[in-house]
Design a protein that fits this description.
6-stranded mixed sheet; alpha/beta; elongated; 13 helices; about 35% helix; 5-stranded parallel sheet
């Protein structure tokens, strides 16, 4: 029996690589003679470029940068030829913040821009950005800051990154004297626009600390900043699917750089040749923390299910909750619910995953 184990991250509890190892251990416990191949997957969410870089054997480069609140951290990206692969979450991720630190009026993507600038210094001309897991709603202004753009207040004074309410202080924008000819490919797992009732502010703002009474003023201010970016660049703004991801990073970059939006799952699968790997096995095992209706709109496990069905392979889903069966998975291994507030959450989630595979995994 030849099995491909290809889980997504179990958000908030188990990274994709660790999940793959635990599932592998559980399968081998139950079926010692099974041949198991591990290929943890990502779909534009947190850690997509990390997995892609490691799976592809690209050169890993470490560099110092600033987190969402301006604290120094060691970040990294992957370099392959003239292309750099990096996740926004590496330095600008919400995972770096305690709940009481969430504040879109302060948090910035400046650190991500520092990593991009470091990669450019090493010859990168194409930047692949994994947009998942960001802590910001700054429309990528922090990245522009790091790339040499200057933002001024009404008195002509320069505004510094991470200053409170920086977005509300901007009155003028200065382009850098030297413009870098960069191309961005932005990977995402959502297709939300930036503006509108399903946009970045009402849908993702609360996760990043935006309070209900702040929604309308923040959206209005973003409209004003977009008008300034449009005037400075000479480009008319057209909201696009995916611009709502990561607080509008792709939207802001699109005024000055070529930006290509890609659904992360399809991009990742093509880069790691997942379709052929599916064809070479008897069964596929995937999973994520909680499979739901949103999962069937571009998330990794559902896209993998489509590959498995196309190849005529059995596909098994591991998840919590009650969804999954109705979307075509041959079997669903149900995980027990876990109190997300407990201190030993990760340890309990990992043990639950391992034991659930041992108890429920069955190829019939």
């Amino acid at each position: 029996m030849h099995i491909l184990v290809a889980p997504n991250a179990f958000k908030g509890t188990i990274p994709a690589e660790k999940a793959a190892e635990l599932i592998h251990s559980g399968i081998k416990k139950r079926y010692p003679d099974a041949k198991v191949v591990l290929e943890p997957i990502a779909d534009g969410g947190d850690g997509t470029c990390l997995l892609l870089g490691k799976s592809s054997g690209f050169q890993k480069v470490e560099a110092f940068g600033l987190d969402p609140l301006g604290r120094s951290k060691v970040g990294f990206y992957f370099l392959h030829g003239d292309t750099a692969y990096l996740d926004v979450s590496t330095l600008s991720g919400i995972r770096h913040l305690q709940p009481y630190e969430l504040d879109p009026n302060v948090c910035s993507t400046f650190g991500t821009g520092q990593l991009i600038l470091d990669a450019v210094g090493k010859g990168a001309k194409n930047i692949v950005l994994g947009l998942g897991g960001s802590a910001t709603i700054d429309m990528g202004l922090g990245i522009l800051w790091a790339l040499g753009f200057v933002f001024l207040d009404r008195q002509g004074k320069e505004i510094t990154p991470f200053s409170p309410d920086a977005l509300f202080k901007i009155a003028h924008i200065q382009r850098p004297l030297y413009h870098r000819d960069l191309k961005f490919t932005c990977l995402c797992d959502v297709n939300n626009l930036f503006f509108g009732p399903e946009g970045a502010i009402p849908v993702f703002g609360p996760q990043k600390g935006l309070q209900p009474q702040q929604m309308d003023p923040y959206a209005g201010r973003c409209q004003q900043v977009v008008a300034m970016l449009s005037a400075k660049s000479g480009r008319v703004f057209e909201d696009r699917a995916g611009f709502g991801a990561a607080g509008g990073i792709a939207a802001g970059l699109s005024f000055f750089y070529a930006v290509n939006m890609e659904m992360g799952a399809g991009y990742f699968f093509e880069k790691v040749d997942l379709e052929n790997k599916v064809k070479s096995v008897d069964a596929v095992v995937t999973g994520e923390g909680r499979y739901d209706l949103q999962s069937a709109a571009g998330k990794g496990p559902y896209e993998l299910l489509k590959l498995a069905k196309k190849a005529g392979k059995t596909c098994i889903l591991i998840t919590s909750g009650n969804a999954g069966s109705e979307t075509g998975f041959d079997r669903v291994i149900r995980l027990p619910d876990v109190d997300m507030g407990r201190a030993d959450l990760a340890e309990v989630a990992q043990e639950n995953l391992y034991q659930s595979v041992i108890q429920q995994f069955d190829l019939g």
